[in-house]
């Protein structure tokens, strides 16, 4: 478990590790060997998992806020080349999603294409108002939050379906995404955690996710039904068994199936992330 509070000191399995620069919105590569984050200058950085070997993947040109990098790292197959990309959100042009090669040095990000599901009457997803991307790595799928002005919904973008995507879960924000079963399973199950307001407070929910038909997800389960304060910034472990979230009192973890009670990890708020085992 990793918790970042925006300072250079990142809490990794209970130990403070100095990254030498501010760390915002950390996200680990699918193999757990590298971490991407936004540094104190607003730039996109990749480092070794212990904070060493920092590389500025892309430099923020100024006048923009970059946030929430996430990995798209997929092996080659008979249809697609291998991918090792980072998606992130930028306030440029009305809040948009961008991509850059994860191994780049001062690379040039390109705006991320967003195609629609195939079928009559399907419209392309909006290109603006998009933020908080979260990838599951394998097959190139990612979810992201779309702010429609009055509320937020979750959309999916699936490279396995040739960049098809669209609305998946309504009234949802701050997603985190994983494939339960991972690369060892022939039939991994997409799972997403997200935030939704309930009785005046933000609660953390978990739901399965249908990637192929445009939003036939199961009924989401509230993992924080008794919350008396906002629960935000959820993260889900690679095996889909544990969810972490932040509250004003600190960071907590809870079982993704809703069993048991939440466990407090830190006494201060922060952005949680899980490092995959390798």
Automatic annotation (TrEMBL):
This is Uncharacterized protein.
């Amino acid at each position: 478990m990793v918790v970042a509070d925006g300072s250079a000191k990142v809490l990794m399995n209970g130990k403070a590790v100095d990254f030498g620069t501010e760390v915002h919105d950390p996200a680990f590569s699918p193999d757990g060997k590298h971490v991407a984050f936004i540094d104190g200058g607003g730039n996109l950085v990749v480092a070794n998992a212990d904070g060493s070997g920092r590389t500025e993947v892309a430099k923020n040109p100024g006048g923009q806020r970059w946030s929430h990098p996430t990995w798209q790292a997929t092996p080659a197959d008979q249809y697609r080349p291998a991918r090792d990309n980072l998606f992130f959100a930028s306030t440029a042009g009305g809040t948009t999603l961008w991509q850059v090669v994860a191994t780049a040095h001062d690379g040039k990000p390109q705006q991320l294409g967003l195609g629609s599901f195939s079928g009559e009457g399907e419209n392309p997803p909006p290109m603006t108002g998009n933020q908080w991307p979260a990838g599951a790595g394998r097959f190139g799928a990612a979810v992201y939050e779309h702010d429609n002005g009055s509320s937020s919904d979750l959309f999916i973008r699936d490279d396995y379906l040739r960049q098809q995507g669209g609305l998946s879960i309504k009234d949802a924000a701050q997603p985190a995404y994983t494939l339960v079963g991972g690369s060892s399973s022939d039939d991994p199950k997409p799972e997403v955690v997200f935030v939704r307001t309930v009785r005046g407070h933000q609660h953390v929910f978990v739901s399965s996710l249908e990637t192929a038909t445009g939003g036939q997800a199961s009924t989401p389960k509230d993992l924080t039904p008794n919350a008396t304060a906002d629960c935000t910034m959820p993260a889900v472990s690679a095996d889909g068994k544990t969810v972490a979230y932040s509250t004003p009192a600190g960071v907590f973890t809870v079982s993704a199936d809703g069993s048991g009670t939440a466990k407090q990890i830190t006494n201060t708020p922060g952005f949680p992330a899980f490092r995959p085992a390798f």
